[in-house]
Specification:
- The chain has helices spanning about 5-20, 20-30, 70-75, 85-95, 105-115, 130-145, 190-195, 205-215, 240-250, 270-275, 300-310, 310-315, 330-345, 350-370, 395-400, 400-415, 435-450, and strands at about 50-55, 60, 65-70, 125, 150-155, 195-200, 220-225, 225-230, 235, 255-260, 280-285, 295-300, 375-380, 380-385, 415-420, 425.
- By secondary structure, it is of the alpha/beta class.
- The strands form four sheets. A seven-stranded mixed β-sheet has the order 4-12-11-10-7-5-6, sandwiched between helices.
- Helix 1 runs parallel beside helix 16 (about 400-415), helix 4 (about 85-95) runs antiparallel to helix 13 (about 330-345) and helix 6 (about 130-145) crosses helix 11.
- The chain is globular and about 65 Å long.
């Protein structure tokens, strides 16, 4: 491969030529929106593509360019953009009632349907975002155990709360791999949170179990992504590793919390017990369950949920606080019900799982023909890495050529494949084999530019 700098210039020139409207909008937006966007994940260099519309597995930008969308709202769009059933359900619900700070029949109905699919969610509460759900799960674990410290895995992303914005940074400051040190991913986080956090190595049975054992008496919870998504590069937990974490937490009365915000429902209607064979004490689901609208849930063992959220807990004064104006709002629940209806009558998950496998194998063939790169993923989730071997955790991802990865993904955007260098890719039910073939062809073109 030629030098990275000339390749990057070619990619950026092509990108700017294709997206002048996106650049103009971004420049104008900086005058009112810091960084020109309303969230860090929406920005990437030199500026993000601005989208005007979406239909099925494709989106259109403000310049009128069509893209195969491999971002799909970070996995929140399971069926595809503007799915007719979801759109009709939302229109109907808004016409009758939108947000009310009161119970509505849809809350119980949707909860029953979710529990029917995921029986390990014996009791559940709805929230709006993954961050809210994970925050509530940790609070519940602390209240139930009377312990305050918690453990998370290096490279696992659990949202924007202070407690979880840790350790997606460079290897130089993260400590030894077998005993990683908490490093904040944001300014403005109190130093005391480091003292409350035990950081664990992902997919490392021996060292993770040893660290949990050493700190067991202080730990309220271990929080884990069964498939490490954004910071973790679409790397699945090894089943033996996940079972070892389950065993050590169960032996020590530590609440095991699975963050299934991305994977729940998307990787199987049975959740983690179905695709990983391991059942947590509490779990957080989101994104796909809302049909593209804000919706998440936290649930699990009835004894834990009732002990900290039930009527008896309120009577004792030992309950945790969980509420919000938009929590369980009827519009999001109506969209979620529509998603479940489609899942019941059509082979959604079978299709996207098969398509995900085809995408990974097809792109791997392209990478192999150029002598570099590895695909990782599980089901309809995937990521590209320029590492020596397929990575198993965040440390191994950081050992790869991240600058090359960013340039290749920007090159794909410049050729009509929306897969920005801010998230792994995901597929929706609306995607087709021709979308996979188009992606592979564009990857071949971009790698040729780099050679």
């Amino acid at each position: 491969m030629k030098g990275l700098e000339p390749f990057r210039r070619k990619v950026e020139d092509l990108y700017r030529e294709r997206t002048p409207g996106s650049q103009a909008l971004w420049e104008d937006s900086k005058g009112i929106l810091p960084m020109g966007v309303s969230g860090a994940a929406k920005f990437y260099e030199p500026y993000p593509v601005a989208l005007a519309a979406g239909s099925g597995g494709h989106v259109t930008d403000v310049d009128g360019n069509d893209y195969v969308d491999l971002l799909m709202g970070a996995g929140s769009s399971l069926l595809g953009h503007s799915h007719p059933s979801v759109a009709a359900a939302v229109r109907d619900q808004i016409g009758r009632m939108a947000t009310v700070l009161a119970p509505a029949p849809l809350e119980r109905e949707f909860a029953e349907r979710i529990r029917g699919l995921m029986p390990y969610l014996e009791r559940l509460r709805f929230a709006n975002t993954g961050s809210e759900a994970v925050r509530t799960a940790l609070r519940a674990a602390r209240a139930a155990t009377g312990r305050m410290r918690y453990a998370k895995f290096e490279g696992n992303y659990h949202g924007s709360d202070d407690y979880f914005l840790q350790s997606s940074v460079s290897r130089e400051v993260a400590g030894p791999p077998h005993r990683p040190r908490p490093v904040f991913d944001s300014a403005g986080i109190p130093d005391r949170i480091r003292e409350e956090t035990l950081l664990l190595p992902y997919n490392d049975v021996e060292n993770a179990v040893a660290l949990i054992s050493e700190n067991a008496s202080d730990l309220a919870a271990v929080v884990m992504e069964p498939v490490a998504f954004s910071s973790g590069g679409a790397v699945a937990a090894d089943r033996h590793f996940a079972q070892a974490v389950r065993d050590i937490t169960a032996r020590n009365g530590i609440v095991l919390i699975f963050d299934e915000v991305v994977t729940g429902l998307r990787l199987g209607t049975a959740g983690a017990p179905g695709y990983l064979g391991v059942t947590p004490d509490l779990s957080c689901i989101g994104k796909a369950i809302g049909g593209g609208l804000p919706l998440s849930a936290v649930g699990g063992r009835s004894d834990i949920m009732e002990a900290v959220l039930g009527a008896s807990a309120h009577a004792r004064g030992t309950h945790i606080f969980h509420s919000g104006t938009f929590t369980g709002n009827p519009v999001s629940l109506a969209a979620g019900m529509a998603v479940l209806d489609v899942l019941e009558r059509e082979p959604v998950l079978e299709h996207i799982d098969w398509l995900g496998g085809r995408l990974r194998s097809t792109l791997q063939e392209v990478l192999d023909s150029h002598g570099q790169g590895h695909m990782t993923g599980f089901g309809s989730i995937f990521q590209l890495h320029f590492t020596k071997v397929p990575p198993r955790n965040r440390r191994e991802i950081l050992a790869g050529d991240l600058a090359l990865l960013g340039s290749v993904l920007l090159g794909l955007c410049a050729h009509g494949i929306l897969w920005p260098p801010v998230h792994p890719g995901v597929l929706a039910y609306a995607h087709t084999e021709s979308d996979i073939d188009r992606t592979a062809s564009c990857l071949e073109t971009v790698l040729e530019m780099a050679s």
